[in-house]
Every structure is written in structure tokens, then in C-alpha cells.
Design goal:
The chain is an all-alpha fold. 49% of the residues lie in helices and 0% in strands. The longest helix is centred in the first third of the chain and has 12 residues.
């Protein structure tokens, strides 16, 4: 999916999910069809440079942003805005 074709509401939701520590990139891909590199492009394009740099520093290497690297299964947060809620 080409992220440039997303509407503003969807872009806002992707940014919100990416900003959440416990929402994985896989969850974003499942819901919106966007791979991690596309999420990073969205964050880079729609956030202020300083906010993007702060986000990248925070999520770099973070276990909770990737399902396979998590050390827990329980306690996942699901926003009421997500599909299937």
C-alpha cells in the first residue's frame, strides 16, 4: 500500500499507534497493510523533525514494538479505535 494515498484520519491513527509503546509494528501492518519502513516514512513526513528524532530514539531496539521480540503475551492494550473492537 502506498502511504501517500492514506486519508488524514488514517495517518493520524497510524501515528497514534506508532507512538504507543506497546503497539507493535506487526499490529499496524495487520490493520493498515503498512510495513515498518512505511510507518517510519509516515512518522518522518508528518511529524516535526525533533519529534521524529525523539520517537526513533525511543523505539530503536524496543522489544515491545516487535511481536517476536516481546517477552510477554498477556497485557496487550487494544484501543477502542482499532478494528474488531
Amino acid at each position: 500500500m502506498n502511504f501517500e494515498m492514506l486519508d488524514d484520519v488514517t495517518v493520524d491513527r497510524v501515528i497514534e499507534m506508532a507512538w504507543e509503546d506497546r503497539t507493535t509494528f506487526e499490529a499496524i501492518e495487520m490493520q493498515f497493510g503498512l510495513q515498518e519502513k512505511e510507518v517510519i516514512q509516515i512518522m518522518r513526513r508528518y511529524m516535526k523533525r525533533s519529534s521524529f528524532k525523539m520517537w526513533r530514539k525511543r523505539v530503536a531496539g524496543r522489544k515491545t514494538k516487535h511481536v517476536q521480540r516481546r517477552d510477554f503475551l498477556e497485557g496487550r492494550f487494544r484501543s477502542p479505535n482499532q478494528k474488531g473492537s
